[in-house]
């Protein structure tokens, strides 16, 4: 007996010093873990049968054992699980369909998935780190547990007022009915009264358009948003009208960078640098009056050669020039959609290895997990927000109430 005990201790010490998994298939402590879990299951079965007899004599009895293998950060454990005749036994320590024993291992799998790792890469990582085989099917099942959280997050209540909101879409490929389709993922980034960034929502559609944006805005309103002070968007036709139909008091700022890019598409390549310099005099002006004078000069110089471009600036001018009403720090924030595009760049780092997603939900799961990780970095208000929010409160008197 002493020799067996000594050999056991030596095996534990050797495996511990060598860094081997003590609870793995060949681990010295694996039999102890197996024994403990099986005894706990047997105790749960006894309590279950006793409780059933208290409620009403059911005649339920033990009905042998089944076999089950569970994975954990400590290794893989094969268990003999007790069964009852009525199949009413629902164990708590290891649930019926539970195949992963440790929450920490599930958390690692979900974290790796949220960082863009493929199912195969996650399986290889778990095998290398814990000497535990976890199939891609099991990994898929684990990541599916995020789905209720995705839906809850998409439908959560929002604040009544947002100071600045950026609206933009990303485009992905999704397999649907045997075909690869292009999908638009609509994202809304907002700044609340405390000056903190927040992804207010994400919505998936076949394509980007003002009609679907109208549905998105209506959903924001349904979830509690009563007012948006400044809405920053790209130059999608009908977008400003869609915003004002739901939030009639919102000031709309079209993205200057999008307008410039769209303009230069129709300018001869040899004249693009000169044209861009002339455009800079417009959006770089100190006042709206000065900018409008520069716009007139642009029209006199280039109007005959590029009438479509000049017409675009004139027709969009009301929504392109909104930012001139603010101080330079606020102008810098709202005259482009850079804020939401910066968020998109971080999402692309996670999704860039994906060719086409197997389903809409696979895409939403990954973007949701990446978003939650990104949002953890947004724990502090924007720089100098105290000064900015005071200016907004003065400009939008009665619509933005500060807690002073």
TrEMBL record:
Residue ranges for the region (Disordered) are 47-69
One GO term in the molecular function aspect is: DNA binding
> Does the keyword Transferase feature in the UniProt annotation?
no
For this UniProt record, give its keywords in alphabetical order, as a comma-separated list: DNA recombination, DNA-binding, Transposable element, Transposition
User: Which biological process annotations from GO are given for this protein?
Assistant: DNA transposition
Family the entry assigns: Belongs to the transposase mutator family.
Please state what the protein is called: Mutator family transposase
């Amino acid at each position: 007996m002493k020799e067996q005990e000594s050999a056991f201790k030596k095996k534990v010490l050797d495996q511990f010093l060598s860094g081997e998994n003590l609870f793995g298939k060949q681990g010295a402590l694996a039999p102890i873990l197996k024994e403990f879990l099986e005894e706990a299951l047997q105790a749960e079965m006894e309590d279950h049968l006793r409780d059933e007899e208290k409620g009403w004599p059911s005649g339920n009895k033990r009905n042998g054992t089944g076999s089950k293998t569970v994975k954990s950060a400590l290794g893989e454990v094969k268990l003999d699980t007790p069964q009852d005749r009525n199949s009413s036994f629902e164990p708590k320590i290891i649930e019926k369909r539970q195949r992963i024993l440790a929450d920490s291992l599930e958390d690692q799998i979900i974290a790796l998935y949220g960082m863009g790792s493929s199912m195969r890469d996650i399986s290889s990582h778990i095998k290398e780190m814990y000497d535990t085989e976890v199939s891609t099917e099991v990994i898929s099942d684990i990541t599916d547990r995020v789905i209720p959280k995705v839906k809850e997050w998409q439908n959560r209540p929002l604040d009544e007022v947002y100071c600045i909101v950026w609206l933009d879409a990303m485009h992905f490929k999704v397999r649907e009915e045997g075909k690869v389709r292009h999908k638009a993922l609509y994202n809304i980034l907002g700044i609340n009264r405390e000056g903190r960034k927040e992804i207010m929502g994400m919505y998936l559609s076949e394509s980007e358009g003002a009609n679907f944006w109208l549905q998105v805005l209506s959903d924001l309103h349904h979830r509690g948003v009563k007012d948006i002070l400044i809405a920053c968007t790209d130059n999608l036709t009908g977008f400003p009208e869609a915003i004002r139909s739901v939030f009639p008091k919102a000031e709309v700022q079209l993205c200057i960078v999008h307008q410039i890019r769209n303009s230069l598409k129709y300018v001869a390549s040899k004249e693009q640098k000169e044209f861009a310099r002339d455009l800079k005099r417009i959006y770089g002006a100190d006042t709206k009056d000065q900018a409008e004078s520069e716009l007139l000069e642009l029209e006199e110089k280039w109007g005959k050669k590029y009438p479509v471009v000049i017409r675009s600036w004139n027709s969009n001018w009301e929504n392109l020039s909104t930012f001139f009403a603010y101080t330079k720090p606020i102008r810098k924030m709202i005259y482009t959609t850079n804020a939401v595009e910066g968020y998109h760049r971080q999402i692309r780092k996670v999704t860039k290895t994906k060719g086409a997603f197997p389903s809409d939900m696979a895409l939403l799961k990954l973007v949701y997990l990446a978003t939650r990780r990104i949002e953890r970095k947004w724990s502090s208000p924007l720089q100098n927000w105290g000064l900015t929010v005071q200016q907004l409160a003065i400009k939008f008197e009665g619509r933005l109430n500060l807690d002073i």
